[in-house]
Write a structure and sequence with these properties.
By secondary structure, this protein is an all-alpha fold. It is built from seven helices and no strands. It folds into two domains: about 80 residues, RNA polymerase sigma factor, region 2, helix turn helix motif (Rna Polymerase Sigma Factor, Chain: A), CATH 1.10.1740; about 50 residues. It comes from Chryseobacterium lactis.
């Protein structure tokens, strides 16, 4: 399950924007994205050796095609569209990596305790209550530390 969560968090935005290029209605796009991740989840273990990205985007193409087939619409993935989409994904990935790098460098400037609490809460999804118990602090103190980190990141992220 951890590997699926990692795949989901890494690809959710890429998959959504890929699908959104071909499906106009928001509800339909969200349904297709959900179907894609259900398919990936079902087939993750048996295809563990195959590149995950290949599975995810092949599934995207299949699900979009299935949508058009179910709705009796004509649609084809042309080779130009696929190449253009892949180029856009590379650009988006570089931009994403740059943004992550900026955030990581800003996190390094935070006091160690603030940084640790922020990562545990925002990245590892640990609740204020649990953090308070583990660190012998009040929930208010935890909240202040998290808000301090958020304010710092928002103020310095450009």
């Amino acid at each position: 399950m951890d590997s699926f969560e990692k795949i989901y968090s890494e690809y959710k935005h890429k998959v959504y924007f890929f699908v959104k290029k071909y499906i106009q209605k928001e509800e339909d796009a969200e349904d297709i994205v959900q179907d894609i991740f259900v398919h990936v989840w079902k087939h993750l273990d048996e295809n563990a050796q195959i590149a995950v990205e290949a599975i995810v985007f092949k599934t995207c193409k299949q699900e979009v095609s299935n949508f058009y087939r179910k709705n009796k619409l004509l649609f084809t993935f042309s080779e130009k569209e696929v190449v253009k989409a892949e180029e856009e994904e590379i650009i988006d990935e570089k931009y994403y990596e740059e943004q992550v790098s900026k955030i990581e460098s800003l996190l390094e400037k935070l006091p160690l305790k603030t940084k640790d609490l922020f990562i545990q809460h925002k990245i590892k999804n640990i609740s204020y209550s649990q953090l308070a118990k583990e660190n012998n602090l009040s929930k208010t103190a935890i909240s202040k530390q998290i808000n301090k980190a958020l304010s710092f990141l928002k103020g310095n992220f450009q």
